[in-house]
Hints:
With 347 residues, the chain is of the alpha/beta class. It has a single domain (41-346), classed as 3-Layer(aba) Sandwich (Rossmann fold), CATH 3.40.50. The protein is built from twelve helices and ten strands. It has helices at 5-12, 18-24, 42-53, 119-122, 140-146, 166-176, 183-200, 216-227, 244-250, 271-279, 297-313, 333-346; strands at residues 65-66, 70-71, 76-84, 90-98, 106-112, 150-154, 204-214, 233-237, 284-287, 320-323. Strands 1, 2, 3, 4, 5, 6, 7, 8, 9 and 10 form a ten-stranded mixed sheet that branches. A hairpin with a 5-residue loop joins strand 3 (76-84) and strand 4. Helix 10 packs parallel to helix 11.
Amino acid sequence: MRLGFSAVAGHRLGTGGPALAQQDLRIPEDIEPAPPRQDLSKEQIRPKLRELLGLDPVPNQVPLETSEPETSRDGLELTVLGYRNSLGDTVPGVLAVPAGADTGTLAGVVCMSGTGGGVEMLTDPQFGNRQPGTGRLMGWGRELARRGFATLSITLRGTTSRHISSVHWEKHIRFLAPYGRTMMGVMVDEALRAARILAAHEAVNPSRIGMTGMSLGGNVTWYGMASDPTIRVGVPVAGSVGSLATAIHEGDVNRHSSYFYIPHMLRYFDHPQVVGACICPRPFMVIAPTRDEDMPTSGVEKMMSIVKPVYDAAGHPERFKVYQPESNHVYTEEYFERVVEWLKKFC
């Protein structure tokens, strides 16, 4: 039987059903970065990373619009606030500080949710996972404040509550690209401005600023820490740190929108080189579930194999840890307790 042109074309052009369409989304496994390729010294990696993210210098003083602080029943001074990011958009936030804290005594932590969360979820008065298996741990930013930290919970640009639509989101990313800017860079800017706000609070010791986040917030946590050496400690939870190349070739192609794929990055380095050069020797713990749909375990293992020797050589093996629970892309109360333990030890 002879096949008609449409049948042959359908096979070759990737219209032969969902499985073939999924396969055709892959690029060749042996693809090489476009020339010119450049080997960078350790000192050159952070400036190049900031260039690729399109990250401007972050101001030390961030103008704020704030509500009057209110003391809550759980002993916190809560302040609703907003500030502008590098594009002039307003970033919503809630500052939570233990009431009556002495001047300069607290560590400050920027708290960031996953794509489906935001300030309301992070500062919910009731802490816990009310829908186990969904990944949504409620109130953990506020709970950190109840544990003795000053926290600033923010709603990142990439969360659905700040989306007009997924189409609008992708167009925004597309239109930033010709200007050498990325949406990841915009969100890192938001997080670093939040860190500056915390550092300026009278109850906070400005040398004790950390970051933590889940999923989208975990991505911004480690990119933010790598971009700014003043961040003392970071804990991404299911934050897709491992290997960008592995995520491209082995990961679920439907998990990440365009913001995740930093243009030109693999011409210079992958995640492990960034962590080794830009975060070490600062304390850095990664919570990477073994079945996390956002980052294959092989990518995490690749990162560990490269980064651990760097921390060992720096004389601080205790400052790098990867916890790999048998789970998928969720945030549990057990993970939170590990975050608290790490922050109390190092922040």
